């Protein structure tokens, strides 16, 4: 719920430069915080990744999510995954590489990366409220073959705070798509993670280089500070 101390705008410390945001036209976009990427036995692990690398993003995202909810900000969660008949999964994706299980194969959390299976769902710590929007996407970018553009236009969104996994894949793909569509993207660095720490670092550098070629990079502390009203100074009665 909104509270009387709410700020309508805030300046977020970011690189390459601070950015002033109107919270009423800003949405929080949380990318693919799904069990399939975060937990053993899911898609991420079938690709040979150490899924524990992603856990560090959960607390910072939870903090930003709490602030976004307190500001009545639009919150959009995405989930990567495919229809049970795999009709939206190109062979170029399903046949690639040599994973221990392929997309659609049965695994410990249900069929790998398939909508409706336990592994496809968002982790309990960041579970969407009924009032929040969940976008199911077949690709890496959240705009491809989804209703995300329509949703953001409907709510008058101009700015996106972006968190999620993985930094260099679905977060980067989505930020690039959003940038081309005219959205100002502020990526929350500690609210993103990769199975490869060096890719996380480079993924963020690619976004903020060249004067912010795709967007801005900040962190959860700076975002929370920008969303918190400064204390009112005490006035002396003398
Ligand atoms: C990947 C994603 N890494 N959500 N998906 O395949 O980044």
From TrEMBL:
Gene3D superfamilies: Isochorismatase-like. CDD domains: cysteine_hydrolases (cd00431). It comes from the Bacteria. Keywords: Hydrolase. Residues 26-219 form the Isochorismatase-like domain. GO terms for molecular function: hydrolase activity. This is Nicotinamidase-related amidase. It comes from Bradyrhizobium erythrophlei. The lineage of its organism: Bacteria, Pseudomonadati, Pseudomonadota, Alphaproteobacteria, Hyphomicrobiales.
